[in-house]
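Pilot study result, target chain (142 residues):
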Amino acid sequence: MKLNKILKWGMVALIIASVVLLILGFANGFGGNSVDTLLRWTYIMVGLALASWIVVGLVVGAINNPKSLIKIGVILVGVAALCLVAYLLAKGDPAMAYNGPAVSGGTLKLTDTILNLIYIVGSAAILSIIVGEIRMAIASKK
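Predicted structure:
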């Protein structure tokens, strides 16, 4: 019962903080550090969501079905392997016709890694849609 109250008030605090930051962004005209602050807050919220998802998945999975922990572990290892492949494929070359301030090699490598992840996951999504439609067409003819 106390855990539910803590979670409820924690969620209310996060919502209030989000609204306050949004109002401050509007008040500042989204100039200067406002955008950076909002982006950092977004990163924090996404990180909290992912951490919650993983922790809740582990806890609920362990309670309901201990064998599901193996499945979650395999999925996490698969995601880590996918990120590693995307990182190894990333070149980290500077952008063509970029005239802004110099960007470090690590930032370029990370940017290319994220782009590779988007390409891989997007291609997998399109492929799964096509394969799913073909399977449904074959199954409906039987």
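One observation from the pilot: The longest helix spans residues 105-141. A full batch analysis is planned for the follow-on phase.
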